[in-house]
Amino acid sequence: MAFPMIPDASFDGGDLDCGNGLLILIRQHLGPLERGQVLHLRSTDKSVAEDLPSWSRLTGNDLLDFRTEGTGLETVHHFLVVKGCLSERKVRLEEKFAPKPVLPGVANPIGDRVVPLPPRDQLIPRLPKLAVFGIGSMPRPAWLLRMLHEKLEGRITEEEFENAADDAVRLVVSTQESVGVDVLSDGEQRRDTYSSFVGGRLSCCRLIPVTDLLPYVDDPDKFKAELSQLDVPAEKVHHPALLGPLVRNRPLALQELAFLRTVTNRPIKVALPGPYLLTRTLFLECLSEKVYKEREALAADVVRLLREEIADLLAHGASFVQIDEPVLTEVVFAQTKKRRSFMCGALSGRLPKDAELEFARSILTQTLEGFPRERLAMHVCRGNWSRDESVALSGDYEPLVELFSQVPVGMLLLEFSTPRAGEMKVLRDLPRETKLGLGLVNPKTMEIESESVIMKRVEEAMKLFGADRVAALHPDCGFATFADNPVSSLEVARAKLEVLAGVAKRFR
Fold first, then answer.
1. In b/e form, how buried is each residue of 349-360, taking b as 16+ CB within 10 angstroms?
2. Residues 78 and 158 placed together within one structural domain of the fold
3. Domain that holds residue 20
4. The model's pTM
């Protein structure tokens, strides 16, 4: 068939419709193309002709041409889809062939990307009194963000990206060590978000832009308007889509730990999306239900996958593993909000509050039981996508105290730097063996908190719970939960961590 221009790539979608994986395949074939290049899609499903124009309009990828040949059962539809718009087709050569960035004085590693793991069952560095650490993400350098998108689009190899990420991790480690952080992380430099990165690690998943989910919701235009009200760049944020049963064919974060062990001797923590967060993230109607008919079946595989990962992380030198469960607050607080709470994990449906909390408690217990409690922590916050406090959830921890009391972790890492978190005293009935990490700096503000204010909050907590139970000081949440949408700069993150370290030193 003759087209107005020769396509740059082509593939046959067969009889798949948009709700059965065709959009994922389109995105997979568009990824390696330059913006302005054209993809030819061949399809025998008549519904694609109705659905593709809407997808094209909502995702910002122009539908250049649509033609049909044949009749009846032999009808074939042909589409030309532009990655972006045709006016972007000309790319400046100096940009296309620009060398990849290398930090001054730091040679990019080459060769095999398998980082040797440290010996199992070695002596694990102990945490100091009132340990200071970040919750997770640190702002990524601009050059790493560019390479992250090139990797997601298939334009560079995973090895090229990992080599660059190594340099970014070295910067983050140096920053933490220089201000006195006690327990280090890699700042989630290799992840696009704190939870969706799982979709890029497992062969059973595919990372797709959130905008690709628009055709699956009841009112795409309303949903797009809701996303635009927040600071998340939805066209850049990716969401994992299940292509088959959940299988841990490669580790999620073990290589992050292995590389960190080559650049620091300090205690290391690794954060993982919790089982409830991961189940809510992966179970989306019209996508995951084609693999799992019930959410409980997916949750069983999530539990198995996370138990395998936690066992490996603890065995190979992580001082503790942090489980992230921010969507718990969406369960108890979002019911009073009129608009959708977007946390890349709160897109799927849920049961009434009590039933949903019981489901979360059950799979958290199944995931964590049997591991040493003192090497497990759980982080809960109220959303971290915007500097605008008015869009974040609000309410004290009282509705979650019962769940907190039953989940087998040694430490809870909770936000307390803003009035939205309520009073600490609602946690007085927690079990004696449960220690607390206090979030006492706000990653969403540029103002650097004063030591005197933080010290008063620490003293308040010690009076309520006892000095031995106040185990850590940390920010409320990460400084760049969504890679493309950091709520802070590296300079501000550094200053806030330095204040926490100064307070901890005074108490010691």
1. ebeeeeebbebb
2. no
3. 9-87
4. 0.79
